[in-house]
Write a structure and sequence with these properties.
CATH topology of the domain at 7-65: Hormone Receptor, Insulin-like Growth Factor Receptor 1, Chain A domain 2
Strand content: 25-35%
Order of helices and strands: EEEEEEEEEEEEEEEEEH
CATH architecture of the domain at 7-65: Ribbon
Pfam families: Furin-like_2 (PF15913), TSP1_spondin (PF19028)
CATH superfamily of the domain at 7-65: Hormone Receptor, Insulin-like Growth Factor Receptor 1, Chain A, domain 2
Helix content: 10-25%
Family: Belongs to the R-spondin family.
CATH class of the domain at 7-65: Mainly Beta
Number of strands: 17
Domain Spondin-like TSP1: 116-170
Mean pLDDT: 81
Radius of gyration: 55 Å
Largest sheet: 3 strands, antiparallel
GO molecular function, one term: signaling receptor binding
Strand order of the largest sheet: 1-2-3
Organism: Platysteira castanea
């Protein structure tokens, strides 16, 4: 072993030197060179830092740099996040997205173009004018639909979500709210009055029938019972004669 190489290293190093830092790492750790000014220092890490990807070999595990336009990568040829000004597409960093795709500035990726989608039209509303459905002959009716899918930046914009058209209705007078309420109240009172009158008449009828029944019962109690006349065919009973 070189005199500058030490076996008792810190920070996960298997071997190290005072000048170059780690020369080899303990098992499962990754060796990476970090630049400090004009000097490179070897360090041992459990995972590779941003801008590097890890490769494992039988004798050593190394961290290698990603491509210049790639911020993080899985391998040198497969980027997972691009640097500013580039858009990710199929593991590559592009300045401009291919045809049929658009640049998403939020995710910095090339994504499919999304067009607007709407639901079916609703049925036409009742013919109205100034919020009323009476007191006019010509009015308007409307129908609406909802947006189901909002478009992306380059997608087809959404069409109108409401339509209006002229309509004609049979003219009818608007019933005043106060008058209608008054008529309903009068009808209710009249109905209650008629019901009360019928109830009183029924009560009087029952009382009269009860009084007549009681009168007949009293008359039957006070009148003497009539004797039956003897039957002529039976004849008179014999009478004893005193001589």
């Amino acid at each position: 072993v070189h005199p500058n190489v030490s076996q008792g290293c810190q920070g996960g190093c298997a071997t190290c030197s005072d000048y170059n830092g780690c020369l080899s790492c303990k098992p499962r750790l990754f060796f990476v060179l970090e630049r400090i000014g004009m000097k490179q220092i070897g360090v041992c890490l459990s995972s590779c830092p941003s801008g590097y990807y890890g490769t494992r070999y039988p004798d050593i595990n190394k961290c290698a740099k990603c491509k210049a336009d790639c911020d993080t990568c899985f391998t040198r040829n497969f980027c997972t996040k691009c640097k500013s000004g580039f858009y990710l597409y199929s593991g590559k960093c592009l300045e401009k997205c291919p045809d049929g795709l658009e640049a998403n500035n939020h995710t910095m990726e090339c994504t499919s173009i999304v067009h607007c989608e709407t639901s079916e039209w609703s049925p036409w509303s009742p013919c109205m004018k100034k919020g009323k459905t009476c007191g006019f002959k010509r009015g308007n009716e409307v129908r609406v639909r909802e947006i189901v899918q909002h478009p992306s930046a380059r997608g087809n914009p959404c069409p109108a979500t409401s339509e209006s058209r002229k309509c004609i209705v049979q003219r009818k007078r608007c019933q005043k709210e106060g008058k209608g309420k008054k008529n309903r109240e009068e009808k209710r009172k009249k109905s209650n009055k008629d019901e009360s009158k019928e109830t009183r008449q029924e009560s009087k009828g029952r009382a009269a029938r009860r009084q007549n029944r009681e009168q007949r019962e009293n008359n039957n109690k006070t009148q003497p019972k009539k004797r039956k006349a003897p039957n002529k065919e039976q004849g008179l009973a014999p009478v004893d004669t005193v001589h």
